[in-house]
Specification:
Elements: E1 2-6, E2 11-15, E3 21-25, E4 31-34, E5 42-44, E6 51-54, E7 62-64, E8 76-81, E9 87-90, E10 99-100, E11 106-107, E12 109-110, E13 114-120, E14 126-128
Parallel strand pairs: 4-6, 5-7, 6-8, 7-9, 10-14
Antiparallel strand pairs: 1-2, 2-3, 8-13, 9-12, 10-11, 13-14
C-alpha cells in the first residue's frame, strides 16, 4: 500500500496494489525540530508528528516509533538527521524499532546527514519509501 500526502487538505490517499484507493483523514503535517535546547535522549513520535528534524547539536538520540498496525496504516514520518552521527530507532516491540530499507534490508537507525521517509503497513512493519 502506498500513500501520498496532500498537505493542503491534511488527508492522505491510500492506493492499493489492486488499484483501489481510499482517503485517510487526520494526517498530521506538523514538524518537530530538535536543536540546541533539547536535552533528552529519546523522542516518542505519534499522531501529532509528521516531520522530525534532528539538528547537528543533538547527539545520542533515539526516536521511538509507534507499533505498525491497522490503526496507523499508511502513516508516514519524515526523519531528517542533520547531525554527523546516526540516530537510533526504538520501539515497544521489535517491529516498531526497525524499518525495511529501499534495498530490503532491516535498519535500526537513521544515518548521519541523511533523511528517511517511513510508512506504516498494517502490522507488517515500517517501510522506507524515500
Amino acid at each position: 500500500m502506498f500513500g501520498f500526502i496532500l498537505q493542503s487538505q491534511a488527508q492522505e490517499v491510500l492506493t492499493k496494489i489492486n488499484g483501489g484507493a481510499s482517503w485517510k483523514s487526520g494526517v498530521s503535517t506538523s514538524m518537530l525540530r530538535l536543536g540546541s535546547g533539547y536535552s533528552g535522549s529519546s523522542v516518542v513520535v505519534g499522531n501529532a508528528h509528521h516531520v522530525v528534524i534532528i539538528e547537528p547539536t543533538v547527539s545520542g538520540l533515539t526516536i521511538t516509533l509507534p507499533q505498525s498496525s491497522s490503526d496507523n496504516e499508511g502513516r508516514t514520518y519524515v526523519l531528517v538527521n542533520r547531525s554527523n552521527s546516526s540516530v537510533s530507532i526504538g520501539g515497544s516491540t521489535p517491529l516498531a524499532g526497525q524499518y525495511f530499507t529501499l534495498g530490503g534490508s532491516v535498519s535500526t537507525n537513521v544515518p548521519g546527514n541523511s533523511s528517511v521517509t517511513l510508512q506504516s503497513s498494517d502490522a507488517t512493519g515500517w517501510f522506507q519509501i524515500r
